[in-house]
Amino acid sequence: MTVQTWLRHARRSLLATGTTAVLTVALLVGAEATSQAATQGPCDLYASGGTPCVAAHSTTRALYGAYNGALYQVRRASDNATKDIGLLSAGGYADAGAQDAFCAGTTCVITVIYDQSGRGNSLTQAPGGGAAPGPDNLAPATAAPVTVAGHRAYGVYVAAGTGYRNNKTNGVATGDQPEGMYAVLDGTHFGGGCCFDYGNAETNNLDTGNGHMEAIYFGDSTIWGKGTGSGPWVMADLENGLFSGPNAGYNANDPSVSHRFLTAIVKGAPNLWAIKAGNAQSGGLSTYYSGARPNVQGYNPMHKEGAIILGIGGDNSKSSSGTFYEGVMTSGYPTDATENAVQANITAADYQAPALTSTALTPGARVSLKATTTCCNADYLRHQADGTVAISPITAASSGGDKNDATWIVRAGLANSACLSFESAGAPGQYLRHAGFQLRTAASDATALFNRDATFCLQAGHSGQGYSFQSANYPNRFIRHYSYTGYLAGDGVGGNTWDSDALWSEDTSWLTAQPWS
What global pTM score does this model have? Predict the structure, then answer.
């Protein structure tokens, strides 16, 4: 094991156990000995590099070693009471248990994401803008569970229509002033609409022209620019353009990325900007572009306005999706060395996706799946005689046939044993699958395509209730009811009526219920 590898593993171990220590390694090749307190946060590293944080947002951990305030606020549906969610200890991790206790028996949404920098640049519900009315939706508080250094925490799950904003900030770059920013995101949750952003935007919720924004974008939109492959890509939203490189269009050096946890970086200075990204669980950063501003009027010099957005575009375009865990904005253009240190801090935090389990969803169990949308919360997902799948009310007075059709036998996923497949109790030997994105039941033909079509992976319910079921071969599509029919649906993007973002989170969330038969 090399010295560098030992240092990385030791730092991860210390952070994971909450130990405060200094690691010192004397490198025999003449490099200067280094040390780093295990309790340092990303903003301590930026400050040491001369580019201090002017905004620091996270629902999972402290971004300063000494921070001991609230991370975010939740509001519960039962009585509209609110609660600030803080830390287990100074410089540590979110007190998810406090949220769980407060939200028990009801649902909660995230109302405020507090700024840890002391400048008051907190994020709240975004108002309407030139592209879409508002106010925007708020993120369900439990839809993005994770662990950080082994501690349970929750991210910010942005479905289309969800957005946060602060138009009256303090210290955020304006005009052509230099700045940097990073965000840790879910690299498997993205959309093709405009725009899942985090960063600098207009202060009036309108598109005020080229160069009036500078924000991280993540998604697979190809309207203005793209990278290699089919996406998603990390790009920069500079207003009226998602830039993957020096000009609108194609950048062969900007690859598709799909890390479960993704570090995304954008930074800008007079006639200079860069895009970087990396795996937030291991390894370093890669530079996808670093150079001059786009050669189009308005981008040199820039006209940044200094608002902060999350999940939306500068004019409140809100047709995309993503998941945010932490991010900062800085004063000044960070050095590569500073960003490398920040990336090492992020990987040492040990983000992990928790294994979701349910006794009702273990292979061999029988289960009924109940809709959660207000219109239909007495309805269950069911097989129909023609092989299609729908929802309908089932009660104790329903016929035995109807009860059978609303009961599913849980099987290990045909294409992935870590996921699930559902055999119809009313039509034994037939499995729930999608064909043309409509749900049907059919007997297995043992092909790889059938197995993928009939396999669904468990996620936390997008609305904060129950569970959502992700397609094994279309990861951005989930089991949904729409107009009482079962579909595989995307979040606002996909070109089909059932991909509508209206009530998407609710329609894709299901409660497990005692089997009707």
Answer: 0.90
